[in-house]
Design a protein that fits this description.
Elements: E1 2-7, E2 13-23, E3 29-35, E4 38-46, E5 51-56, E6 59-68, E7 71-76, E8 79-85, E9 104-106, E10 111-116, E11 123-124, E12 131-135, E13 138-142, E14 148-153, E15 160-161, E16 166-171
Antiparallel strand pairs: 1-2, 1-8, 2-3, 3-4, 4-5, 5-6, 6-7, 7-8, 9-16, 10-12, 10-15, 11-14, 12-13, 14-16
Length: 173
Amino acid sequence: MKLRLKQIGTEDIRTVELHRLKNAGQNGASHLVKIDDHEQEIHLQADGSGRGWMTQQGRVSCFYTYTQDDRTHVWLDGEVYELENVNSAPRRGGKSGAAIISDTLKSPMPGTILQIVAKPGAGFEAHESLIVMESMKMEMSLSVPHSGTVTEILCSEGDLVEQGAILVRLGDA
């Protein structure tokens, strides 16, 4: 499986190849991961709630995931990454690729709302910042991959929100 990997807060986008090596039932599965020219075996175990553990060279790291549309946000070791399946991901910036339309903007992880950029009734462009939140001492700008209109804001500055909480309801442009 080929995935597009973007570290949130940077413009660095890489292609990742992920190949399942073996399934260990309740104990997860082993995968071969290739990023650029570097290959490494990892073992993934998830509990079904978006939380899991990755073992890499004997080191165990906890991770959290949240999926919205075709994008999966992953929190791992204090960093947030966005993954998209290369074969199903919409093209960014091209006229021939249409983005998947979402009617909500959800929190990719638990955190604090720092700033609400969006205004009810206002229009926005694709990838325009709608909410700024902080999680694990990292500030993130939240957006969606399409243009539209803000229909309702469901959070306030200073709110502590859970992963998956609906922050903004969206409508057509």
